[in-house]
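step=encode ok
step=design start
structure_in=
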């Protein structure tokens, strides 16, 4: 398929043909006019020697009439030209032999017709030199058409004889023309001036075929035919040169282009923009660019005389230097596959009319050797280069190139990417590139940058591990409290911190406190085995020493515990539901009744007394009801009363049994209290 290089608008002239028609209306000649035409035709040879004065005398004609008729015949060209008589005496000098019909006069004489006075009409026609025909008045070219090349009128010559012929053919179409109209001999005059012409615009395209032959054609069929019938040198001079003039002016040198057959991506004229659609997601490289002259919104790689790559906005300045000489205009680099694309301008050897023709062109192709990627700035990228690349390659690829860094450097790198490209940088496993955290500020930055990442002590340096527990204890909002290895120690620290050896409180002196102290010591030893630096944590050391002193103070006031002695702590439910087991338990163990249980038993006792009183009152009321019952069917009523009394008796017996049980429970309670007092 041919490559379209350029479309251009040309114009050729449509000539205005201003035509003058001279004609006469044809009528019947007068008797005297016919007589004079007969005399001039020599129809009366016997009168040939006479003059007009004699004829006028015989016919008694007025001089004015004779002169008018002669003037009319002379003017219409029916007789050969004569000098008209000025006065009557001049008729003597005008012999009949001087009167001779013209060819046109002979025609009219035979037809017995007579042309009238001369008349003149004007007409305007438009001549198309491509058709060699008259056409309708062309429309004025659109005013919005820019850069129209006006072709020289010399390319479109006008044949005057053809114009005469065409105007003659058009005469019969005029309003003034009818059956009595006859044009004079040479009665058509045509004036055609290029100054009065109108331009007719046509599109012309320049294409290049696969063999690099240049072709010129037009979608206007008429103009296309004209092109195909012209001498190639004419087309070259008047069409080809104007179409590439801007491209030629765009070139500054005389360099010729190498034509890459396989890697060519775009070919345009030198003044046009390359088609970059095929190179997608590339970055343009500027040679020795001035920062102030660059587009802030467009990512660019700029060669500069600097020591190390720098990122300024969306522009990456790298230490390199390359002059835009030898036709090299632009370079494009694609980070995703390290591909380099080069744009060059110069003369491309093509052919026109089977002869070599240098075409001012611009080509875009893929460079076989990627010299750009080999530059130290890109082969060994620093943070600025990697931040720039983050817009063009996946984050995971950037991560592979990132060195180990402090959390401060990582935060700065992420912020640089966000500022430059307005997008986050959070590749998976980035935290593995972070060096050990050294202080609380490092911890805060890490938690903010990696909110979903585990804050293990393994991420801290030895010194930070030693201090981390102190950060968590001193500040409840500290991120150190989220470290999982410290969670148990923090909870125990809060619970045991109240145990002070110089402020012993009876409520704290219990077995649970001693067990918690033992668990604290066990957890401290366990975490110290994994993270030895924690053994030097001041807060942990201080609390461990405080708890040892508290234990010693407690043991000074209390006997050592007899581990062989057995105890039984009873709750309320067990006493209520298993009263029969109390004596056997008391025989084997020391029974302990908590104060709460004693209170609950007293409450139950009072409750039963109230229920017993209510039952006795109910019994009295039911007895009264039985006595008041009077019924016709006395036997049935008595039976009902007996049944009701039976149920009441059963309920009373149950209440009495509960009272007995309560009495037994009270005796056991008194025993338990006595035992507790003895222990105290």
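sequence_out=
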């Amino acid at each position: 398929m041919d490559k379209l290089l350029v479309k251009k608008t040309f114009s050729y002239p449509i000539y205005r043909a201003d035509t003058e028609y001279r004609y006469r209306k044809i009528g019947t000649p007068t008797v005297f006019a016919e007589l004079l035409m007969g005399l001039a035709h020599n129809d009366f040879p016997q009168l040939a020697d006479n003059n007009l004065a004699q004829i006028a005398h015989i016919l008694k004609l007025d001089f004015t009439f004779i002169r008018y008729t002669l003037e009319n015949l002379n003017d219409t060209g029916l007789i050969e030209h004569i000098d008209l008589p000025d006065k009557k005496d001049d008729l003597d000098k005008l012999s009949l032999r001087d009167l001779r019909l013209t060819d046109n006069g002979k025609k009219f004489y035979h037809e017995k017709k007579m042309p009238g006075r001369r008349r003149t009409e004007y007409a305007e026609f438009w001549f198309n030199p491509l058709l060699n025909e008259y056409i309708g008045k062309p429309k004025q070219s659109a005013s919005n058409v820019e850069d129209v090349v006006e072709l020289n009128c010399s390319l479109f010559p006008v044949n005057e004889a053809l114009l005469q012929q065409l105007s003659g053919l058009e005469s019969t179409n005029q309003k003034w023309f009818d059956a009595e109209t006859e044009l004079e001999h040479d009665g058509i005059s045509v004036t055609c001036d290029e100054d009065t012409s109108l331009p007719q615009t046509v599109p012309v395209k320049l294409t290049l075929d696969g063999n690099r032959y240049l072709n010129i054609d037009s979608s206007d069929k008429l103009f296309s035919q004209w092109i195909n019938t012209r001498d190639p040198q004419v087309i070259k001079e008047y069409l080809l040169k104007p179409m590439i003039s801007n491209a030629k002016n765009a070139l500054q040198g005389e360099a010729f282009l190498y034509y890459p057959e396989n890697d060519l991506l775009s070919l345009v004229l030198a003044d046009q923009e390359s088609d970059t659609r095929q190179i997608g997601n590339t970055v343009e490289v500027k040679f020795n660019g001035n920062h102030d002259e660059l587009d802030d919104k467009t990512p660019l790689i700029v060669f500069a005389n600097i020591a190390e790559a720098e990122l300024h906005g969306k522009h990456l300045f790298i230490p390199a230097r390359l002059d835009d000489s030898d036709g090299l205009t632009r370079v494009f680099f694609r980070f995703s596959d390290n591909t380099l694309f080069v744009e060059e301008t110069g003369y491309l050897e093509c052919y026109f009319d089977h002869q070599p023709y240098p075409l001012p062109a611009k080509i875009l192709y893929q460079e076989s050797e990627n010299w750009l990627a080999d530059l130290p700035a890109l082969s060994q990228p620093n943070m600025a280069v990697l931040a720039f690349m983050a817009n063009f390659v996946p984050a995971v690829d950037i991560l592979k190139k990132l060195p180990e860094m402090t959390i401060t450097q990582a935060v700065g790198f992420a912020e640089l990417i966000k500022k430059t490209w307005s997008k986050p940088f959070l590749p998976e496993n980035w935290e593995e590139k972070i060096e050990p955290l050294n202080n609380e500020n490092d911890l805060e930055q890490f938690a903010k940058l990696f909110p979903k990442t585990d804050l293990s002590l393994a991420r801290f340096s030895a010194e930070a591990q030693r201090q981390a527990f102190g950060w968590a204890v001193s500040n409840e909002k500290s991120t150190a409290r989220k470290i999982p290895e410290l969670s148990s120690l923090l909870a125990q620290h809060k619970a045991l911190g109240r145990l002070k050896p110089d402020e012993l409180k009876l409520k704290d002196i219990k077995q649970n406190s001693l067990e918690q102290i033992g668990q604290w010591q066990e957890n401290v030893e366990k975490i110290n085995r994994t993270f030895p630096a924690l053994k030097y944590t001041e807060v942990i050391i201080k609390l461990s020493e405080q708890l040892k002193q508290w234990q010693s103070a407690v043991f000074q006031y209390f006997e050592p515990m007899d581990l062989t002695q057995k105890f039984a702590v009873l709750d309320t439910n067990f006493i209520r539901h298993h009263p029969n087991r109390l004596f056997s338990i008391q025989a084997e163990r020391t029974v302990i009744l908590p104060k709460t249980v004693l209170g609950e038993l007293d409450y139950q006792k009072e409750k039963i007394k109230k229920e017993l009183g209510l039952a006795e009152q109910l019994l009295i009321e039911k007895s009264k009801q039985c006595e008041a019952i009077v019924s016709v069917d006395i036997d049935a009523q008595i039976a009902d009363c007996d049944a009701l009394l039976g149920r009441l008796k059963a309920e009373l017996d149950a209440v009495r049994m509960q009272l007995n049980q309560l009495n037994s429970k009270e005796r056991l309670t008194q025993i338990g209290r006595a035992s507790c007092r003895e222990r105290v």
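step=design ok
step=annotate ok -> The domain at 569-679 is CATH 1.10.287 (Helix Hairpins).
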